[in-house]
């Protein structure tokens, strides 16, 4: 266990950041799943709005819980699936 004041603070900050990051990751996964479900349903309008929402979530997570390239890859793959729906 932490003995110094600064190390105790670090434990608190780390715990708080961990919860925030877990929440962000979960939000990205949920938005992506909703977009994929909308794509599978075949409704292009719903898929477009869900993909746009997922893209927003993914790009907001850049630099916090995911690297820029991974985020752009995810967005690109979702967009590709939507464009193939036509």
Q: What CATH first level would be assigned?
A: Mainly Alpha
CATH architectural group? Up-down Bundle
Mean pLDDT: 95
Order of helices and strands: HHH
**What coarse outline follows from CA principal-axis ratios?**
elongated
Characterize the quaternary organization of these chains.
Answer: single chain
Low-confidence stretches: none
Structural class: mainly alpha
Q: How many domains, as an integer?
A: 1
Number of helices: 3
CATH homologous superfamily (4th level) name: Ribosomal protein S20
Distance between the termini: 58 Å
State which percent range the strand residues make up: under 5%
What's the total number of strands? 0
Describe the structure.
The structure is a single chain. The chain is an all-alpha fold. It has a single domain, classed as Methane Monooxygenase Hydroxylase, Chain G, domain 1 (Up-down Bundle). Helices cover 81% and strands 0% of the residues. It is built from 3 helices and no strands. It has helices at 5-41, 44-60, 68-83. The radius of gyration is 17 Å and the shape is elongated. 17% of the residues are buried.
Summarize this entry quickly:
The protein has 86 residues and is mostly helical. It is built from three helices and no strands.
Topology:
Blueprint: H1 5-41, H2 44-60, H3 68-83
Short descriptors:
single chain, 86 residues, mainly alpha, Methane Monooxygenase Hydroxylase, Chain G, domain 1, 3 helices
């Amino acid at each position: 266990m932490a003995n110094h004041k600064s190390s105790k603070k670090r434990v608190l900050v780390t715990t708080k950041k961990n919860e925030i990051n877990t929440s962000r990751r979960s939000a990205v996964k949920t938005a992506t799943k909703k977009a994929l479900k909308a794509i599978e349903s075949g409704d292009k309008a719903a898929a477009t709005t869900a993909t746009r929402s997922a893209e927003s979530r993914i790009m907001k997570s850049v630099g916090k819980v995911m690297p820029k390239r991974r985020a752009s890859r995810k967005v690109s793959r979702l967009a590709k699936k939507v464009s193939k729906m036509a």
